[in-house]
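FORM 12-B: Structure-to-Sequence Request
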């Protein structure tokens, strides 16, 4: 079902969130204080306003409180990000997601009641480092601080073997929860007799320690 979002700040992060929400069929209101940014997005966002989001009165007049979910995508100006998030929570917006540029910023956002703090630069850095660490790693998603879900290309030595023969859970402690085939078919919860072939992508869940061990030591 389409939801109503308000994105504040149309920089690289906010712009990309806005584009994707629209592609996913959601209604998006966008606010940026910079005229050039507003102009850039005016052809794809129907309700777009050039305004300073630290002005509570302006946010009220724009009807921001009718949105279910607000995304504060102001990075550089930490003070504006914090003040905007505080006003949005005071206005009673059910869900506020805000981008943090460092740990102090993140801690303040959490203290003032932001529901979800995201760290795009830090998270991309972690993901890229994992990809650099292993030639086979395609994607990496942190589930908690200790557990992750990874997508790994099958290793050449796995070709033609069953999961039972590979015995990954016993050897590395992590579990293959799905296998993506080259034709995009997905085997969810594969069984012991399912075979791995070259070109398959394994979706694996485990503790970070187990996954690092698997990535670095699989033979
Ligand atoms: P990114 O790193 O994602 O590009 P930036 O911090 O560079 O993020 O961009 C944030 C955007 O937020 C900019 O387009 C800027 O004009 C906008 N912005 C900053 N402060 C305010 C504010 N008080 N009200 C509205 N928009 C703002």
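FORM 12-B RESPONSE
SEQUENCE OUT:
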């Amino acid at each position: 079902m389409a939801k109503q979002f308000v994105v504040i700040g149309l920089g690289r992060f906010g712009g990309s969130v806005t584009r994707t929400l629209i592609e996913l069929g959601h209604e998006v209101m966008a606010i940026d204080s910079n005229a050039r940014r507003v102009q850039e997005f005016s052809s794809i966002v129907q309700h777009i306003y050039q305004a300073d989001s630290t002005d509570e009165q302006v946010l009220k007049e724009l009807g921001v409180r009718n949105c279910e979910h607000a995304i504060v995508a102001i990075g550089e100006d930490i003070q504006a990000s914090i003040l905007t998030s505080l006003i949005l929570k005071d206005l009673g917006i059910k869900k506020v997601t805000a981008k943090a540029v460092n740990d102090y910023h993140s801690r303040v956002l959490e203290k003032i009641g932001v529901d979800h703090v995201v760290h795009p630069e830090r998270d991309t850095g972690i993901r890229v480092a994992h990809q650099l660490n292993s030639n086979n790693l395609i994607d990496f998603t942190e589930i908690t601080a200790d557990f992750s879900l990874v997508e790994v290309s099958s290793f050449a030595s796995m070709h033609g073997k069953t999961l039972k023969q590979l015995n990954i859970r016993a050897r590395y402690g992590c579990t293959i929860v799905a296998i993506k085939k080259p034709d995009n078919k997905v085997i969810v919860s594969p069984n012991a007799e399912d075979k791995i072939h070259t070109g398959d992508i394994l979706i694996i869940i485990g503790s970070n320690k187990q996954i690092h061990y698997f990535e670095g030591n699989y033979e």
